[in-house]
């Protein structure tokens, strides 16, 4: 009798991708449209994971952008782009990179499109966000977590 030595096959699927929340503000309109356009962009990313059941997760990518021109805030954009993902038979070590890098990488093009559309509809030149290396961001985050853990254990 042959033993079943094959581990269970990993399964990943996208159940849903959706815009969970968005905000666009032009606090200095219409004055900003009369000023010289010299944009300075402040760009921030964040992720949040909610476990919906044993193998289903909601991952939310938050993109926040503030654009100033000549030290006047032109606009602020915040987009929470979310997805529901099924991940089965992944190890604990694999789950972190899947949820912290792979899933946000899937969501980013959707968020990028929402930002571009909002900015254009707000009356400003199109803003195309550059691609993001979520693998590098996740690695940097994990390094910071390890440093914080090492720092807190040396205090004791």
UniProtKB/TrEMBL annotation:
Protein keywords: Chaperone, Cytoplasm, Protein transport, Translocation, Transport
Cellular component annotations (GO), alphabetically ordered: cytoplasm
MF (Gene Ontology): unfolded protein binding
Gene Ontology biological process terms, A to Z: protein folding; protein tetramerization; protein transport
Localization in the cell: Cytoplasm
Keyword check for NAD: no
Subunit structure comment from the entry: Homotetramer, a dimer of dimers. One homotetramer interacts with 1 SecA dimer.
Functional description taken from the UniProt entry: One of the proteins required for the normal export of preproteins out of the cell cytoplasm. It is a molecular chaperone that binds to a subset of precursor proteins, maintaining them in a translocation-competent state. It also specifically binds to its receptor SecA.
HAMAP family: SecB
Assigned protein family: Belongs to the SecB family.
Name the UniProt record assigns to this protein: Protein-export protein SecB
Organism: Methyloglobulus morosus KoM1
């Amino acid at each position: 009798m042959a033993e079943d030595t094959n581990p269970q096959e990993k399964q990943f699927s996208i159940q849903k991708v959706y815009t969970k929340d968005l905000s666009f503000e032009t606090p200095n309109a219409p004055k900003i449209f009369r000023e010289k356009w010299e944009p300075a962009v402040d760009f921030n990313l964040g992720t949040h994971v909610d476990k919906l059941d044993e193998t289903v997760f909601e991952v939310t990518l938050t993109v926040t952008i503030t654009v100033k021109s000549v030290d006047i805030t032109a606009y602020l954009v915040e987009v929470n782009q979310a997805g529901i993902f099924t991940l089965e038979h992944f190890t604990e070590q694999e789950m972190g990179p899947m949820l912290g890098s792979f899933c946000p990488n899937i969501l980013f093009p959707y968020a990028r499109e929402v930002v571009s559309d909002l900015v254009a509809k707000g009356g400003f030149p199109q803003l195309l966000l550059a691609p993001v290396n979520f693998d590098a961001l996740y690695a940097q985050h994990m390094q910071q977590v390890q440093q914080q853990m090492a720092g807190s254990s040396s205090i004791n």
